[in-house]
Design brief:
It is built from 3 helices and 13 strands. By secondary structure, the protein is an alpha+beta fold. The protein has 2 domains: about 50 residues; about 170 residues, Jelly Rolls. The protein is globular and about 55 Å long. Bound molecules: calcium ion (2 copies). The site of one calcium ion (CA) has 9 residues, from loops.
Amino acid sequence: MLFQLLCSRTKQCHENRKQVPHPPNKSSSLLTTVAMKIPSFVLLVCHVFVTINGYVEIQRHYEFEDVLTRPALEERELWVWRSEASNYKTLRLVDEEQKYHIQLKVCIEPAEDQEFVTITLDDIRYANDGPFDYIFVSFEGRPWSVYATYERWAHGHDWNIFRNTGRNGVSHRLRKGVYTIDISVLTDKWGLELDKIRLNAEYQRLDSSLFCGGSIVNLHQPAHENTDDKK
Ligand SMILES: [Ca+2]
Ligand SMILES: [Ca+2]
């Protein structure tokens, strides 16, 4: 807008000069010269600002229920409708043996002129009612975060009250490539509902999706896989 305003003012100066038969005096000539140079100055400042301030950061989330394939969704055994859940659904896991493993693919694409991207586990949104559970997160096979969920006995009402783990684990500085995040849980007999996971990525391409696939493995059964790029 500023640029357009300056451009229109510069244009007006030109038009005014055509309408006035007399040569402009020194002060008006100086003002006209300054006005004509301002757009170039603004462009220069913008360019320098972008060059110096090349910092970019994106935030993306993945809905846990998206790891389920259509047959699993139809079975309704691993997901629940919740009015307060993101996408109105959660992934429901009752897992006293840590047999389920959610595996999410993260596609690292550094922004222009960048070699590395720094990712941070910003949050996992979940719901629980009754005894607490554990959420284990590993990155490329190495432990990244362990979190104990909120414990509250509310006769089932807390299943629609969502809570957040917040930031957990150290940040990872990564080159371009595909990386795997593994999430498993250890629950009581009533389980845990996982809503969504959120990552922040510094110096990642602004137009990238970051998450590029997800699946859930039951170590006691064949894998359910969903590699659609939905985010
Ligand atoms: Ca529980
Ligand atoms: Ca969800």
